[in-house]
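Help needed: design a sequence for this.
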């Protein structure tokens, strides 16, 4: 039976891994211990899982005493490299939430440790396991649109989902590397995976014009804000039992505030970005992320030598700003043939059933993976590198050659 420990006991760590591991996969694996810089939050894991899970105040001590097979890392993005390297030093494999890390320097640090200690790193890109993108991968692999020449890619976060990143630790670049790394790494990975190719050059533009210091009527946080009655972004953290329990009631331990104002001048990440990418086989991609859309969804268009594929992810219809529960793919052939298919994931929980597929592979390990859905360290870095290069491009006003930093990673 495989032994896991968890570092980082926030929402994703607890709901995505701890609870399912204990309640659904107990015959195959165990959660032997947890660590978080906020001990009170770590102690809640036992409550959520309805079992006794040992809590450690020291990460090294947990690894030394428990000697786990694998460490699940779900901390702040900027801290991933520390825990990943430390885990490998202690002889453990690693399961890392995306992004695997936030800077080129940290990527190379992980790369060096991986080569030294010969341990495995899995990066959990749940979109790869989503039925819609599975189908798209199959169609492209089967040559339905020929060689892909260009990609037009738009991802929209609505003013509920998108705004939440500007309330949390993600709002500071030092923690998340920006949405281009924390969020877009998902999207870039899908492009890399569908193309089966590596990004080479990146050019980017980005602005912060919707969130941040765009108005004077603001406060440190939503709780107790004098403008709450006229602010459409007001969120009462006390009305969400999970957020209250996991964050508000644990504030006294580390001071982390979960409902900060989305108009704070502390915010230093972009809410609107445009990125151009050139791939090694010649494909060019234009990508945009909007974190303040009235509706949520994505449009991914691939133009090939035999036709065009349009992938619509949960935004088929926006009438009344209601999201559709049916994703779809449309293929237009040069001979006028049109192929349309719905992929209904409305009844599937956890990113269209993707989270369950990931956990089955992680904790049971018996599912076939013909499409290569499980991502390794290299895949994690190749996706994050687009965001890293985009950040550098915006900062320095130039096109960035990823090989300047990651030739050694790309080789391995």
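Sure. Designed sequence:
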């Amino acid at each position: 039976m495989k032994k896991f420990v968890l570092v980082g006991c926030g929402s994703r760590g607890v709901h995505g891994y701890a609870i399912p591991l204990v309640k659904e996969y107990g015959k195959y694996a165990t959660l032997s211990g947890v660590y978080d810089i906020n001990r009170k939050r770590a102690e809640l894991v036992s409550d959520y899982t309805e079992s006794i899970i040992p809590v450690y105040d020291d990460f090294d001590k947990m690894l030394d005493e428990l000697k786990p097979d694998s460490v699940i890392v779900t901390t702040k993005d900027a801290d991933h490299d520390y825990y990943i390297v430390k885990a490998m030093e202690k002889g453990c494999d690693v399961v890392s939430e995306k992004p695997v890390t936030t800077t080129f320097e940290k990527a190379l640090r992980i790369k060096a440790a991986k080569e030294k200690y010969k341990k495995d790193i899995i990066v959990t890109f749940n979109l790869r396991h989503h039925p819609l993108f599975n189908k798209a991968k199959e169609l492209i692999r089967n040559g339905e649109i020929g060689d892909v020449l260009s990609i037009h890619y738009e991802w929209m976060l609505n003013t509920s989902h998108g705004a939440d990143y500007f309330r949390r630790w993600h709002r500071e670049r030092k923690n998340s590397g920006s949405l281009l790394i924390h969020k877009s790494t998902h999207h870039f990975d899908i492009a890399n995976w569908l193309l089966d190719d590596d990004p080479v050059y990146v050019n980017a533009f980005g602005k912060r014009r919707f969130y941040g210091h765009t108005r004077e009527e603001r406060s440190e946080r939503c709780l107790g804000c004098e403008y709450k009655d006229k602010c459409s972004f007001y969120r009462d953290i006390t009305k969400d039992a999970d957020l209250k329990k996991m964050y508000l009631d644990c504030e006294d331990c580390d001071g982390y505030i979960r409902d900060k104002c989305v108009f704070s001048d502390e915010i230093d990440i972009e809410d609107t970005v445009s990125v151009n990418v050139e791939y090694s086989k010649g494909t060019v991609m234009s990508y945009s992320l909007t974190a303040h859309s009235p509706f949520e969804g994505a449009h991914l268009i691939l133009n090939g030598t035999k036709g065009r594929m349009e992938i619509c992810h949960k935004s088929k219809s926006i009438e009344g700003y209601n999201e559709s529960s049916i994703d779809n793919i449309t293929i237009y052939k040069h001979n006028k043939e049109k192929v349309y298919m719905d992929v209904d994931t409305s009844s599937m929980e956890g990113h269209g059933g993707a989270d369950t597929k990931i956990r089955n592979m992680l904790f049971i390990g018996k599912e076939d993976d013909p499409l290569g859905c499980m991502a390794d360290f290299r895949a994690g870095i190749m996706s994050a590198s687009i965001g890293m290069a985009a950040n550098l491009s915006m900062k320095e006003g130039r096109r960035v050659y990823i090989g300047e930093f990651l030739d050694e990673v790309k080789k391995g």
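The CA atoms of residues 389 and 400 lie 6 Å apart.
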